[in-house]
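Morning, I've got a small favour to ask if you have a moment. I owe you a coffee for this, so here goes:
>
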Amino acid sequence: MPIGDDSPWQFRGLPPALEWVADGWHLRVVQPYRATKLYRCPGCNQEIFPRTLHLVVWPEGSPEQRRHWHRSCWERRHAELERTRRRNQRR
């Protein structure tokens, strides 16, 4: 994850967290020491336990829709969204 002026990864928010803003999505990395609650991942419907690295994801402009995801679950979901987007562009 290179971080620089041309990288989509930047430190944002308070407290500062690594965040990616691209493709219509905000992704925030939740470090284990900041993960203090139990969440349920919408990708696998399993629990994300406290002190587990995970992502908070929300559509750009809709922070009220933010959800906590396992990283692998979000990567799979994002790949599905990209495939659908590309398929719809060809039509």
In short: Strands lie at 9-12, 17-22, 25-30, 39-40, 47-48, 54-59, 67-69. Residues 9-90 form one domain. The longest strand covers residues 17-22. The chain has one domain: 9-90.
